[in-house]
Amino acid sequence: MKEKKEEKEKSHIEKIIEVSTPSQIFCLALTLILLGYTPKLIHSCYSYTRFRRLEKPEYTHESFEDFWIVIPCSIVLRLLKMFINTYTYEFFKRKLNHKYSGDELDRKIKKCTRGIFKVLYFSFTFYLGLFKVLKMTNFAPSVMFGNGELLYTVGDWPYTPMPSTLKFYYLLSFSYYVEDGIVHLFLPPNYDYWEMVLHHVITCMLIFSSYMSGFWCIGIFVLIQMDFEDIWIGLIRVIMDFSSVATLSLLYLLLMAGWGWFRFYTFSYCVFYSFAMGIRVAVDNYSHVVSVMAMLLATLLGLNIYWFALLLKMGITLIRGKPKDLQMVVTKKEMDEQN
User: Which of 52, 105, 250, 279 has a 20 to 30 Å separation from 114 between CA atoms?
Assistant: First the structure.
């Protein structure tokens, strides 16, 4: 009882320090480096946007004013999360109270309600991005279920015609990562605390810089490829503690298949191949923006490889018939038992 009381009295900062393993500290260091470069990136995007407007005044697809919509969108997303939490909390409480109790039960329930939101949100954005944005272009390749040609990705760059729904899709995605990133900072920390901060910072920087520099034609691939796997990740987290091993195994296989196809094969093929063309096109025009975006994409690929290794570890727990959430904080007693 005394140990539980002491744990409950720990401040949020102390809890963050407790889960800051060497790998998480490395992620924190990378995050600080990227944040330090953010003002330079914003200035470069502003300069390049001004350059394009001077060269072609009638092309006004992207502007800093577009990002004002992020504030109301973020508020709406937060309210939707609160709504889902309110109306599903008791359901998950009945499902989980046999396995968890106290603060751990509350944390697990809220993680499930966030999972419900992710399933709904990413299902919507995946459909919107793939069928209402990418397929409206002439550069959706067959590996992304389109009839276009990847060579056209930067054919009209930096004045690429923008699909009508692109702006809404892109800024909605940006709003999601801004809102989710801010809220994440104040949630009870798990052992992936700083890597998720790093992921959100990378994603926000990529969305912003690709939008403002005209490379949304490449960023759209990244967003769609991430959205698909997040549907299955959210669903697995929702049902992990009260579903059969057979159901979890089926969802796990779908997740791994999607991860291999989208985050490895098409990510490497579409993003790096097309970005290589982008570097060729942009070599004389603010090439440092392109270089930073390439570095961010490489870091994102590194995170995908790391998470893939964690998913393989999760697969081992499924084979053993004891599925486990590898992100949840374990107690000192559990750690001693594992050691």
Answer: 250
- What pTM does this model have? 0.87
- Using N-to-C axis directions, what is the helix angle for 193-212 and 287-319, rounded to 10°? 140
pLDDT single digits (tens) 85-130: 999 999 999 988 888 888 888 888 998 999 999 999 999 999 999 9
Among 57, 40, 28, smallest CA distance to 208 is for: 40
Banded pLDDT at 67 (limits 50, 70, 90): very high
The rounded radius of gyration (Å) of the Cα atoms in the chain is: 21
Maximum Cα interatomic distance, the chain, rounded to a whole number of Å: 70
pLDDT digits (tens, 9 = 90+) for 195-213: 999 999 999 999 998 898 8
Burial of 174 (0-12, 13-18, 19+ CB in 10 A): buried
CB 145 within 8 A of CB 225: no
Q: What contacts 321, CB < 8 A, 6 or more positions away?
A: 245
Q: How many CA atoms lie within 13 A of 138 on its CB side?
A: 7
Per-residue three-class SS string for the chain: CHHHHHHHCCCHHHHHHHCCCHHHHHHHHHHHHHHHHHHHHHHHHHHHHHHHHHHCCCCCCCCHHHHHHHHHHHHHHHHHHHHHHHHHHHHHHHHHCCCCCHHHHHHHHHHHHHHHHHHHHHHHHHHHHHHCCHHHCCCCCHHHCCCCCHHHCCCCCCCCCCCCCHHHHHHHHHHHHHHHHHHHHHCCCCCCHHHHHHHHHHHHHHHHHHHHCCCHHHHHHHHHHHHHHHHHHHHHHHHCCCCCHHHHHHHHHHHHHHHHHHHHHHHHHHHHHHHHHHHHHHCCCCHHHHHHHHHHHHHHHHHHHHHHHHHHHHHHHHHCCCCCCCCCCCCHHHHHHHC
Q: Which two tokens stand for residue 82?
A: 């609160």
Stronger pLDDT, 156 or 233, i.e. the higher one: 233
Task: Establish whether the linkage from the previous residue to 57 is cis, with ω within 30° of 0.
Answer: no
